[in-house]
Amino acid sequence: MKGFVTIFLVLAVGVAAQDSTKPAEEATLPGLNRMVAPIPKYAKPIAQEKHLRNVRQLTFGGQNAEAYLSADGDELIFQSQRDGRDCDAIYRMYSDGSDVRMVSNGRGNTTCSFIAPDGKSIIYASTHLADSACPPRPDMSRGYVWALYKTYDIFKADPDGSNPVRLTNSDGYDAECVFSTDGSKILFTSVRSGDLELWTMSPDGSNPEQLTHEAGYDGGGFFSPDGQWIVWRASRPTGEELTEYQALLKEGLIHPRKLEIYIMNLRDRSPIKLTDNGAANFAPYFHPDGGRIIFCSNMNDPQGRNFDLYLVDISTKKIEQVTYNESFDGFPMFTRDGRTIVFASNREGLVHGETNIFIADWID
Fold first, then answer.
1. Gap between the Cα atoms of 315 and 320, Å rounded
2. Alpha-carbon distance 340 to 177, whole Å?
3. How many angstroms from the chain centroid is the CA of residue 89?
4. Pairing state of beta strands 101-102 and 89-94?
5. CA–CA separation, 52 and 55 (whole Å)
C-alpha cells in the first residue's frame, strides 16, 4: 500500500513458484500502436479470473509494487527493492517491461510515484533529505504496524528524475501523491493538521487545501476519470480503537486492521462509504466508466492474509471478486480506455513473498 508496500507484502503474503503458459494470441500493449514480441513470461491462467486475459509478468525478482501508468499507457513508474537495495527506489519502464531505469537518486527510502498527465514531470515521496540511509523498520512487537516516517516529503522532477524540487516542507509525513487527470492538482496524504488527512496542492506545491476532517487515517487517494471525484481508503476508529490510533500516531505508527473504501465529489465534499466489511480494503482506483471502483481486500480470508482484487458498483455497492490467486494481488490501475489493467502480485514468485508487476487485457 502506498508508502508501506514492502513490509506489508513480505509479512502478509507469498506463494510458491508455478509453471507458466503462453496464450496463442499476442497482446497489444496500450499506447504503443504496434504489435510487440511477447514479453518473457505469461502467467498461468486462473479459470475464475474472467476479467483478465493474457496476464504478463513485467518484473522478475525482489519487491516491485505501486506501478502506475502514464496517461498514454506507454510507460509505468513504480517502486522497487532490487539489486541488493535495502529500501525502495523509484523506477520507470515501458509497458512491455523493457528499459527499466532508476529515476530517484538511490538515497533514503522512496514511495508513491506518479507521472504527470502531460508526461513532463514525475512526483514521488522520499526521505533522502533527512538521511541517505534507509529509515529504521518499525517495531512489530505490538503487532503489525506501518511506519509514518516524518522525514517523507514530496518531490517533483523531470521525467528522467533529474532536477528534483521539494514540494512539501511540513513537520511530519507527506506522501501518497498523485496528479489529477488534467494535471492541475496533486492529491496527497499529510499529518500536518495533527491527523492523517487528504490534501490537494498545486503542482508547484502552493495552495495546500485540506479535504478530509474526520478522526482516523485517510490516504491512498486517486481522482476519477473526469477529475470531479476522489476515491480513497480510510479508518474511522471510535472508543478504545480511537485511543489506540491516536497513541500510535504520536509515535509515527498506524495499525491498518480496518480500512474501508470511500468516494467524494470535490464540489459538495460529502464522503460516501462504499465498503463496510471490517477488513483491510485499500488501493482503490476508478474504472474508466466512472461507475465502478477496483480495490484490494482480504475480506474473504478469515486469516486476513490472502488479498484479492474486487470491483464495487458505486450505485448498488455490489461487490464482485476479480482475482483468485492464493496469495496477494493489489495496487490495480486501468489504462484510460479500460482495455488494460496493471497490478502487483505474488503469483509466479520464485521465492516466498516476492512481488512483481503484471499487466493484462481487461475483459468486461
1. 14
2. 23
3. 15
4. antiparallel
5. 7
pLDDT tens per residue, range 229-252 = 999 999 999 999 999 999 999 999
Residue type, 137: R
In tens, the pLDDT along 76-126 reads 999 999 988 999 999 999 999 999 999 999 999 999 999 999 999 999 999
Provide the CA 55 distance to its chain's centre, in angstroms: 19
| Rg of the chain taking only CA atoms, in angstroms | 19
- Residue 266 class from Cβ within 10 Å (0-12 exposed, 13-18 middle, 19+ buried)? middle
Euclidean distance between CA atoms 4 and 138, whole angstroms: 11
Residue 74 has, within 13 A of its CA and on its CB side, a CA count of 9
Q: Positive or negative, the Cα torsion across 272, 275, 279, 282?
A: negative
Q: Which residue has the cell 528522467?
A: 160
Domain boundaries, the chain: 5-362
Give Cβ neighbours of residue 329 (< 8 Å, ≥ 6 apart).
296, 307, 308, 309, 323, 343, 344, 345, 346, 347
Grid cell listed for 60: 522478475
5-362 folds as Neuraminidase (2.120.10)
Q: Which amino acid is at 176?
A: E
